[in-house]
Design goal:
Radius of gyration: 24 Å
Number of helices: 13
Shape: flat
Distance between the termini: 74 Å
Strand order of the largest sheet: 1-9-8-5-4-2-3
Order of helices and strands: HHHEHEHEHEHEEEEEHHHEEEHEHEH
Number of strands: 14
Helix content: 25-40%
Largest sheet: 7 strands, mixed
Length: 440
């Protein structure tokens, strides 16, 4: 057996030191913060192995997408029960790529064109809706339910018009929307479906992973999410043509599908003739789309590879934390509407949404102020009603029916943290503070 090279020995020493550093840093934090308890609404859980993977990638000296990115894409596609996974630099970019892919001329008569309409909801995060506007399409806003905060599928027929070509929706806080009705509606009318799974990695609908029902799915790896790369996202699909289009849009719009640093993956690099280019023009520099550069770095992908090993553990803790808060707060259902899983689903919850009812002796704002004074993190349900936000006041849009429940969400809903970095001891603090407000 050959002797390990000196560089490999040094690499192992560096990675060992990283582990020692993480252990010492953790000990120092515990010494600096004795007895203090805060309850963040979300966050990351990083261990020594995560940092070791990121450092290992740095030591390769290959900083754009490489071996770790390919490993993650393969492993994550398998986890999400999809054929293809394409990493990108954020979940927002993933949504932009997914929607933009549906405007590709390569889709011929199924291509979405400027002025066409896309059904969505206003009770959500901006970058689920923004790609519609950024592609010169018209969002059609439908109201939501007050039980799962997902789209009210019974309003879809009234939202339909000859111009509607697609639906893009997020699984709110990890709780799947009614995929039976949405999928059936899309098939009936020949619509594309994009599932925004940024808050719902690991959630299931009738035993299948969310993201497997639509034509395209998106995820996020921001620190608040189920696993993290710091930043990062992914587009998933089972459709070979859509995969190729998304990859092109992500990688400058090029027609070539070679990985960074790779040449001639097609085997005929100098034998193409596309557009009005001369025959034999280098395929690496032929562009079939007006694209972007939205790739991820290798260090981020390496962190993701390490995190993905613990995704089932993280999901178990999230579900445990959800169940704990639900049990603790159930005695106050007279005043607080607690989250309900969509029938037939197994949510991997992102957060714990609560709607403060009109008869509550404590308003949402009063409750949020008290929680904040005890270092307990809260968030409203993202943008509330996005159409009330400054950026959206003058956009072109269509609203087929009043957004009554969307406004109720804006005025009365918030969510608590249950992420996998929180202990039951921390959640006991959360429940204790809330209980005190309704026991006065």
């Amino acid at each position: 057996m050959s002797k390990p090279s000196r560089s490999n020995e040094i690499r192992e020493q560096i990675l060992t030191l990283v582990k020692e550093f993480m252990a010492e840093q953790s000990a120092e934090k515990n010494r600096l913060l004795p007895g203090t308890i805060s309850v963040p609404v979300s966050g990351k859980v990083i261990i020594a192995e995560d940092i070791q993977f990121a450092v290992d990638a740095c030591l390769d000296g290959w900083f754009t997408s490489g071996r770790f990115a390919r490993t993650f894409e393969e492993n994550f596609a398998r986890y999400m029960e999809q054929k293809f996974c394409l990493l990108t630099n954020s979940g927002s970019s993933a949504n932009l790529l997914a929607m933009s892919a549906l405007t590709s001329p390569q889709l011929e008569n199924r291509r979405i064109k400027p002025g066409d309409e896309v059904i969505t909801v206003a009770a959500g995060f901006p970058t689920t809706v923004n790609p519609i506007i950024q592609n010169n399409l018209v969002p059609v806003f439908v109201d939501v339910n007050l039980d799962d905060y997902g789209i009210d599928p019974y309003q879809l027929e009234m939202a339909l018009s000859p111009k509607v070509k697609a639906i893009i929706l997020a699984h709110t806080l990890g709780n799947p929307f009614n995929l039976d009705m949405i999928e059936k509606f899309c098939r009936k009318h020949g619509l594309w479906l994009i599932e925004d799974c940024c808050d719902a990695v690991g959630s299931k609908y009738r035993g299948k992973m969310v993201g497997t029902f639509g034509d395209l799915a998106t995820t996020s790896f921001f620190p608040a999410h189920h696993i993290t790369m710091g930043e990062g996202g992914a587009v998933l699909t089972n459709n070979q043509k859509l995969k190729k289009i998304v990859q092109s849009l992500r990688d400058w719009g090029k027609d070539c599908w070679c990985s960074p640093g790779q040449d001639n993956a097609c085997g005929k690099r100098f034998n193409w003739q596309l557009g009005t280019l001369p025959a034999g023009y280098d395929h690496k520099y032929i562009y079939s789309h007006i694209g972007y550069n939205l790739k991820i770095t290798e260090m981020q992908a390496a962190l993701g590879v390490a995190q993905l090993k613990r995704i089932d553990e993280f999901a178990t803790i999230r579900k445990r934390n959800f169940d704990f808060l639900f049990k603790e707060l159930s005695p106050f259902k007279e005043f607080l509407s607690l989250p309900a899983a969509t029938p037939g689903t197994e949510p991997c919850w992102f957060g714990f949404p609560i709607r403060v009812k009109n008869n509550s002796p404590v308003s949402r704002e009063q409750l949020l102020k008290v929680l904040d004074s005890h270092n307990i993190g809260t968030r409203n349900l993202f943008g509330g009603n996005l159409l009330r936000q400054p950026a959206y006041l003058n956009i072109e849009k269509r609203i087929p029916a009043p957004l009554t429940n969307t406004n109720k969400v804006m005025n009365s809903v918030f969510w608590l943290g249950i992420y996998h970095g929180l202990s039951l001891e921390q959640l006991k603090v959360t429940s204790k503070v809330i209980k005190e407000q309704f026991s006065k």
